[in-house]
Amino acid sequence: MHIESPKKTVNKSSKDIFEFLIDIKNFESLMPDNIAKFEVLSEDKFLFALKGMPEIVLKLKETIPYEKVILGAASDKLPFTLTADIVSTDESTSEVVLNFEGEFNAMMAMMIKAPITNFIGTLSDKLTNI
């Protein structure tokens, strides 16, 4: 399953956005209003839960300085990645697209598609305000 956020323009350099995203604790400020739990587990891992959804642990998997930040599920039960692609448009502005990639059976995909799409959209929207 692939879900892509709309491209968002952020009034920050690609370096500033990259450094914001690799600091795991900053994800709390990007979470939707219906967050039930957020906990930093280590410098590269955090746990969150939205109301009515199970807890999910995300781990920083890969980074390409100033271009890409990849987070992945720490558990193999729900294998997925969340990738932030950062493109600098000038010294103080960048474009960011969030991509969700997961392997789910058809039933699970049907159940989680709308909540994940909303979640990715909220992260993307809030990223414009960092």
UniProtKB/TrEMBL annotation:
Superkingdom in the source lineage: Bacteria
Name used for this protein in its record: SRPBCC family protein
